[in-house]
Amino acid sequence: GKSRSHLANTLRLLQLPPSVQDHVIAGTLTAGHARALLAVKDPDTVARRVIEDGMTVREVEALAAGEQTGTGPRPGRPRKAAIEKDADTRALERRLESSNREVTKLRDHMEQVRRDAMTDALTNLANRKSFDEALERHCDSDEGKNITLAVLDIDHFKRFNDTWGHQTGDQVLRYVASVLSRIGRAPRMAARYGGEEFAMIFPSENMAVVERLLNEARQEIASRVLKRRSTNEDLGTITISVGIAERDYGEDAYDLLDRADKALYQSKNNGR
Ligand code: C2E
After folding, report:
1. What is the pLDDT of residue 212?
2. What angle do CA 250, 251, 253 make, to 5 degrees?
3. Tens of pLDDT along 110-159?
4. Residue 41: helix, strand or coil by DSSP?
5. Tell me, what's the pLDDT at 4?
6. What distance in Å separates the CA atoms of residue 213 and residue 183, rounded to the nearest whole number?
7. What values do phi and psi take at 246, rounded to 5?
8. Is the omega angle on the peptide bond into residue 187 within 30 degrees of 0, that is, cis?
9. Which of 107, 153, 176, 231 has its CA 20 to 30 A from that of 90?
10. Is the Cα torsion angle 220, 238, 155, 134 positive or negative in sign?
11. Tell me, what's the pLDDT at 5?
């Protein structure tokens, strides 16, 4: 009986920090103190007070009782520091989440701004800037690359505008743009180059193919009887002229565009 309880006591004392165990072994702490120390929160510190300040077993027990009933920590409840840490973590997570949202919003916004900067607002086609950049890219990337360039414009557009007004003129631009955008899907490109002028890049088709495609577009546009939306009046039909140039070996964007422009000028003089 006695040695069993002695062993049990010894085993319990093993729960104390090693430094406190050492004091028990060395005899600087009594077994009574050691037992009392089992109940306190910080046995190391209290053991030092026992040794240095002569704290009694009763005082140690009182301290342990105070720790458990007073403002001290209670089992089963997170300590204040833990609660604060949790709150900090949550606040940080919230901040991180909201800053992620901000970044996403900002990135979406930047993409929108960049898209807007490359797009013609009326027709939603690429604008001149993005067209020029694309043409440069195509001409820079490969000396021997066979790209075909087309420039197109609406015949007598000024007269049309003067007769029917700018709003109807804008509708006509949108109509032509919608036909060209159907033909000009990537990797091709269709752009509003300025006023009533459009331009297209065909990165992998030769002149003959492009001619056929754009002739079809020309006929489609010429056969559509447009209506004035506000009054339902017939606007008649419109026609477009086309100039096409296939890139010569090593030709730069400027020269290629110049030749396509000249071809357009020629077709204007011949037809429209
Ligand atoms: P939107 O007015 O926004 O029309 C977009 C598309 O909706 C048109 O593409 C067409 O497919 C269809 N749509 C709209 N209104 C009508 C209609 O009254 N009848 C029929 N059949 N379809 C209609 P689409 O034809 O390529 O035209 C693109 C844009 O070109 C139009 O945009 C409009 O701004 C302009 N547009 C085309 N045709 C006319 C026209 O006859 N008169 C005027 N004022 N604008 C036209």
Report:
1. 97
2. 130
3. 999 999 999 999 999 999 999 999 999 999 887 777 899 999 999 999 99
4. coil
5. 64
6. 8
7. -95, 135
8. yes
9. 107
10. negative
11. 66
pLDDT digits (tens, 9 = 90+) for 25-74: 788 888 889 889 999 999 999 999 999 999 999 999 999 999 887 654 45
Ligand 1: residue whose CA is nearest its atom 25: 175
Residue nearest atom 11 of ligand 1, based on CA coordinates:
178
Calculate mean pLDDT across residues 220-227. 96
Amino acid (1-letter code) at residue 129: K
pLDDT for 270: 80
First vs last Cα of the chain: how many Å apart?
121
Q: Which of 178, 225, 235, 237 to mutate to test the pocket of ligand 1 (most atoms within 8 A of CB)?
A: 178
Task: For residue 182, report the distance from its CA to the centre of ligand 1, in Å.
Answer: 14
Residues contacting 220, CB < 8 A, separation 6+: 179
220 close to 230: Cβ distance less than 8 angstroms: no
Spatial CB neighbours of 221, under 8 Å, sequence gap ≥ 6: 175, 176, 179, 237, 238, 239, 240
The CA 66 to ligand 1 mean position distance, Å, reads 85
Q: 24 near 13, Cβ under 8 Å?
A: yes
Local structure of 202: helix, strand or coil = strand
Active site residues: 196
Q: Which amino acid is at 3?
A: S
Kindly list the distances between the CA atom of residue 5 and the CA atoms of 10, 11, 57, 93, 213, in Å, as whole numbers in the listed order.
Answer: 8, 10, 20, 52, 102
Ligand 1 centroid–CA 175 distance in Å is: 7
| Residue bearing tokens 């820079």 | 140
Amino acid, single-letter form, for residue 179: V
Q: Which residues line ligand 1 (CB under 6 A)?
A: 168, 171, 174-175, 178, 226-229
Which pair of tokens denotes residue 190? Answer: 């269709």
